[in-house]
Amino acid sequence: MDSLLALIIDLHLSNARQGPGRDDFSQQALDFTQLDQEKELQIADIGCGSGSQSIFLAKQLQGTVYAVDLYPPFLQELERRSAGLELKATIETLEGDMANLPFSKNSLDLIWAESSIYNIGFKTGLSHWKNFLKPGGYMVVSELSWLRDRRPKPIAEYWKLGYPGIQNIAGNIQTICDLNLISIAHFGIDEAAWLDDFYQPLAANFDAFLKRHPDSPDAESIVDQEINEMELYRKYKDYYNYVFYIIQKPY
Ligand code: SAH
């Protein structure tokens, strides 16, 4: 693991979540699925981070939640957090690449991915993951999406560099349809889910993080970048949001 990556993980590891969101939005998304909650379900949480959604899903549903992440420190943190909790489903952590998942074809009832599919791109992710779903199974994915088609230059350029694959909502729904999947619903999260549940807890780590890595230009630059992204969010939040897409594989 290169040191920049280790630093980024160190900054984010202690937080409840590594992307914007909140349990009531996860619940809203889950409510759009018509999963039989009395049954033992096979569920995958892809790019699970420290496991906020794996734990949420294991509290709501029965069966097994496979919590997948590329980086072991997140999986260890998830195991620490979930130990001793009263859960309906069993959580199994799995170190792996979302671009090359180890599941069998047609084996999963639900694939969940909050603010993680961007690592391989919305279309690449959905087209790989749909193979693992049972017919009639669901994918719930939250993805950074443009809300307006005329964008001020600073924010257009920021995301062009940071996430060139970002599309508007219509574009993402078109991608879902092009993959012969069914678009069941979509909705955006609120401002508090960005600021109170993600950026503020992250900003609360900055001082301790910089103290743990004194005289590290990389650590300083990571903090500067996060501060810049937060400022852009405050300024341009009307132009983009994390949007949940609830998707079904046809029977
Ligand atoms: N879903 C969590 C974490 C989102 S951050 C939450 O919302 O809190 C994105 C996560 O994807 C990180 O934990 C990162 O380690 C993981 N990730 C990045 N690239 C990955 C890959 N290729 N395969 C699996 N996980 C990956």
List keywords for this structure.
8-stranded mixed sheet; 10 helices; alpha/beta; 8 strands; Rossmann fold; binds S-adenosyl-L-homocysteine
Give an overview of the whole structure:
The protein has 251 residues and is of the alpha/beta class. It has a single domain, classed as Rossmann fold, CATH 3.40.50. Helices cover 43% and strands 24% of the residues. It has ten helices and eight strands. It has helices spanning 3-12, 23-32, 52-60, 72-82, 122-129, 153-162, 169-178, 191-203, 206-212, 217-236; strands at residues 40-46, 62-69, 90-95, 108-114, 133-146, 167-168, 182-188, 240-248. Strands 1, 2, 3, 4, 5, 6, 7 and 8 form an eight-stranded mixed β-sheet that branches. Strand 5, helix 6 and strand 6 (167-168) form a beta-alpha-beta unit. The mean pLDDT is 97. Residues 17-19, 21, 47-49, 52-53, 68-71, 74, 97-99, 114-116, 119 line the site of S-adenosyl-L-homocysteine (SAH).
Give the SSE string.
HHEHEHEEHEHEHEHHHE
CATH architecture: 3-Layer(aba) Sandwich
Count the strands? 8
- Report low-confidence residues grouped into runs of 5 or more: none
Strand content: 15-25%
**Structural class by SSE content:** alpha/beta
Based on CA atoms alone, the radius of gyration comes out at 18 Å
Name the helicity range. 40-55%
